[in-house]
Task: inverse folding
């Protein structure tokens, strides 16, 4: 999984996330009700975007920030 410029190798076991999932959850401070959107990047790699239960995207310090200057 990729989140901003961070990458996580997450193992799968019987249709459940396994290896390194606890690290991903802790670093993203995931809570019950959060929504994760998985975006395929290749056959074995996914990007992930995290939304809170209100549907607002969570921003993390390691995410890319794009701003458009208003002139």
Result:
């Amino acid at each position: 999984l990729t989140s901003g410029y961070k990458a996580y190798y997450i193992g799968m076991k019987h249709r459940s996330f396994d290896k390194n999932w606890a690290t991903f959850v802790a670093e993203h401070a995931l809570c019950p009700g959060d929504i994760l959107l998985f975006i395929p990047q290749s056959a074995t790699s996914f990007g992930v975007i995290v939304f809170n239960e209100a549907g607002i995207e969570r921003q993390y310090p390691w995410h890319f920030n794009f701003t458009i200057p208003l002139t």
About this structure: The longest helix spans residues 21-27. The chain has a mean pLDDT of 85. The radius of gyration is 14 Å. The chain has one helix and six strands.
